[in-house]
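[step 3/7] inverse_fold.run input=structure_tokens len=70
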């Protein structure tokens, strides 16, 4: 039971990590300066300028989801 619970929690965390890494790669590819990529226990924090164009914001959402599925 404990091994299964640990594996479930690890897979959930890895899913979030790949989601945010995909977003970071997309932002770097678009030339958006990422000022902070901080790894917390329950979440990751990506900081980038608030005045980014709408297509970049939409791309961040879509790419993160695609990386989570892959």
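[step 3/7] decode complete -> sequence:
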């Amino acid at each position: 039971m404990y091994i299964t619970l640990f594996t479930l929690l690890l897979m959930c965390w890895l899913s979030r990590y790949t989601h945010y890494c995909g977003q970071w790669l997309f932002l770097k590819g678009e030339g958006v300066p990422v000022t902070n990529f901080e790894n917390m226990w329950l979440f990751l924090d990506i900081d980038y300028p608030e005045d980014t164009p709408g297509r970049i914001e939409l791309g961040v959402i879509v790419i993160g989801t695609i990386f989570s599925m892959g």
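[step 4/7] annotate
The radius of gyration is 14 Å.
The chain has one domain: 10-69.
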